[in-house]
Structure formats: structure tokens, C-alpha cells
Write a structure and sequence with these properties.
alpha+beta; four-stranded antiparallel sheet; 11 helices; 11 strands; elongated
């Protein structure tokens, strides 16, 4: 790994407090690979052979049911996936694929489990990571159950805007079908929802969403700390 990529890796809580010796053990048989967009990195039902670490790019976690696909989460650098399957040595419950050209570190699952059994501090951090992932899943479930698709879309827009508060506009980084899948609706309903949001402080220009009146959008979306705050 390049020095800047190693520094990125150490920003993850999972690796930040590892000793140099244990980090070297994990990376000893790891593979750092560049993937084009559209590559499936993990297949639902396959055994978890690697812990994936996204160093650059954008990855989608999704499920395939009855010939339909549903989005579960979108991952940006630097993040790990799919940790739970690696820890319990079970099959992947979801699939993962690149949405853009991505740089991914593949750490053999057996090495992760071996260190988990030997290093109490590492095991504690793994437990925390799994707890955060569980809480994120619960928050998404709450949003899906308690909100209409247009409310989910409005809160997604606010969350994206919060990533770069200096920029008033956001650009959807993938096709509308992917966005529809991740807010739990159809592409047709998404188009209608985008049109309806123009009366709540936003304008749509292709993939660009212009937020003219954020306070009006927030009044409609009604974001909740225990659903929308990434720190909760």
C-alpha cells in the first residue's frame, strides 16, 4: 500500500489502535486491487473469504430477491464490509458491487478471525463496529417503516447536502434506479417524488439537486436525531 493509503486505513477505528506487528499480520496476505464500475465484489450466499476495505470509490450493498434488487447501503471511503459474515465465518447475507471505479483492500477472513481470537483490544473494536452497523440498520428500518418514499427522499437529500455543507447543490452519484432502490421505491415513484419536492425548496436539473430553501425542505422532511444523525 502507498503511504497515503496506509494512513487512510489507520483512520478506521478497526485498525487505528492495532500494533504495528498485528497490522502487518493482517496486511501480510492482503490484496489491494483496482476494480472498474459494475464489478460484484461479494455474492449473497457465498462464504465470506475476505474482509473488504474500501480505500477509494463507491460501493453498493444490496440484495436480490425474486429477480428484483433492493439497495441496503452505500459505502464511501474509508470503510469495511461485510464484517459480520467474516467474524462468524458464515455466508454473505448481501451482495456488494462497485458503482464507480474503486480501490479495495481484501484481507483474508481467516487472518481477521485469528487476530480476533488473540487480541482482546481488537475484538472489542470489532464488537463496536458491529454495534454501529446494527444501529445503522435499525435507523434505516425505522425510516422505511415510519416515512413515505418522498419523505425518505427528502431526508436523503439533506444527508447528502450535509456531507459538503459548503456546496449548496448535490449531484446524485449514480443512476436514478440505484437511488430509488436505496430509498425503497420504484424509479417511476422517484421521478414523481423529485417533481413534488420542487414545492419544498428544491430544483431538479438532471442529476443535480439545487437546494434553494433548506429550511423549507427540513420543515417537510422533519429529520429525527435517532434516525438521521450519523453520530447517534
Amino acid at each position: 500500500m502507498r503511504p497515503d493509503e496506509l494512513a487512510q486505513l489507520k483512520t478506521l477505528p478497526l485498525f487505528a489502535d492495532l500494533s504495528d506487528e498485528n497490522l502487518k499480520r493482517l496486511l501480510g496476505a492482503a490484496l489491494l486491487q483496482q476494480f472498474p464500475a459494475g464489478v460484484r465484489l461479494a455474492r449473497e450466499g457465498d462464504q465470506a473469504d475476505f474482509l473488504h476495505v474500501l480505500i477509494g470509490g463507491l460501493v453498493e450493498i444490496y440484495t436480490e430477491q425474486d429477480e428484483s434488487e433492493w439497495g441496503i447501503s452505500l459505502l464511501r471511503p474509508v470503510s469495511t464490509f461485510i464484517l459480520a459474515a467474516v467474524v462468524v465465518d458464515q455466508a454473505y447475507l448481501n451482495s456488494a458491487r462497485t458503482l464507480t471505479e474503486s480501490r479495495v483492500l481484501l484481507i483474508p477472513a481467516r487472518d481477521v478471525r485469528a487476530l480476533f481470537d488473540e487480541d482482546i483490544a481488537f475484538a472489542r473494536i470489532v464488537a463496536q463496529e458491529l454495534a454501529y452497523a446494527y444501529r445503522a440498520s435499525v435507523k434505516k428500518l425505522k425510516g422505511n417503516l415510519a416515512r413515505s418514499s418522498i419523505e425518505r427522499l427528502a431526508n436523503w437529500i439533506l444527508a447528502e447536502a450535509q456531507r459538503e455543507p459548503a456546496h449548496p447543490n448535490i449531484v446524485i452519484p449514480f443512476d436514478r434506479g440505484t437511488l430509488a432502490s436505496h430509498i425503497g421505491t420504484t424509479r417511476e415513484n422517484l421521478s414523481r417524488s423529485l417533481a413534488q419536492l420542487t414545492s419544498h425548496g428544491v430544483r431538479i436539473r438532471g442529476r443535480e439537486i439545487v437546494i434553494d430553501r433548506k429550511e423549507k425542505l427540513e420543515l417537510f422532511a422533519r429529520p429525527k436525531p435517532l434516525i438521521d444523525d450519523p453520530g447517534s
